[in-house]
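Ticket opened by: R.M.
Priority: normal
Category: complex prediction / small molecule

The reporter submitted a protein together with tryptophan and asked that the result be attached to this ticket for the collaborator who will pick it up next week. Submitted input follows.
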Amino acid sequence: MKGMTNKKRILSGVQPTGDLHIGNWLGAISNWVALQEKHETFLCVVDLHAITTEYDPKQLSKNTLSTAALYVACGIDPKICSIFVQSQISAHSELCWILNCMTPINWMERMIQFKEKSVQQGNNVSIGLFDYPILMAADILLYDADYVPVGEDQKQHLELARDIAQQRINAKFSKVENILKIPQPIIMKKGSKIMSLNDGSKKMSKSDINEGSRINLLDTPEIITKKIKRAKSDSYMGMEFNNPERPESRNLLMIYSLLSGKEVSELENELSQTGWGTFKKIFTEQLIESLQPIQERYQVLINDPYELKKILFEGKEKAEAVANKTLSRVKSELGFFEMEK
Ligand code: TRP
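Result attached by the on-call engineer:
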């Protein structure tokens, strides 16, 4: 594969937990769309990550398909990208185990997201949740990825992947050439901080128990209208971006700017005298209009499971060839028994 192209390689993924929301779209998927032409792109639906917290086995497979369909509906072109399901390629779990054995526990105890998530989970925290960043490292390192486009909140996980690859694999086991490629993050600044509709200081999240805190990509115009009506506002007049006391105004302006393609500063001028009621109306219209083509493409795809499965099959074939090759290289360099030798 690598020999066929001199494009730099990208790997990224999203968890298939429930419906994807506009934060996933504007913060992750839209950036992949912008990068796909110039890079060799591998996009994974990380279903093994989705079972690190409580989940519904009846929904897992359905959510996996629907997440893949949304990648395509948002503009990922399956002709040039490999879209695949993580659990379909056993190399992910296998490399994860090897990396588990190479990673010091105290590196893991620093992971901020684990600390945050385990607080939410009370006393029901699995080893898998603790291990989540190492599985993510395996996802990335298996593909010799040059770049990993992620949001700000995943930066620490990417650092960990780099440290494991460099200090725990390459430095210890490489003979002539490095065993693993050290990936670079692409931190997606602009849309990576889409905040909750109920609290402009909290990230929009699939795991928030309040449905009204997010706009899902498949929300109907009625639901969107209702959610935006109820979204938190403040008592100021006019919309502002940089006033620290107005995180909700900042958040909606950011989303509106991304959807409309207008600069925030331009919008601030336009909307300096506009009250929340009027702004929410314009905002709702823009949101409905922007989501409509995604929803239409999604419906076509989800009603054609043959086409969707074909995309995932072809993605798997391409991804698996790369992943298995890396895994063999790692196992060989780390001294495992080989039948052919
Ligand atoms: N942890 C990532 C997130 O929540 C998802 C993910 C899993 C990922 N494996 C990955 C992202 C590999 C980039 C590369 O956003």
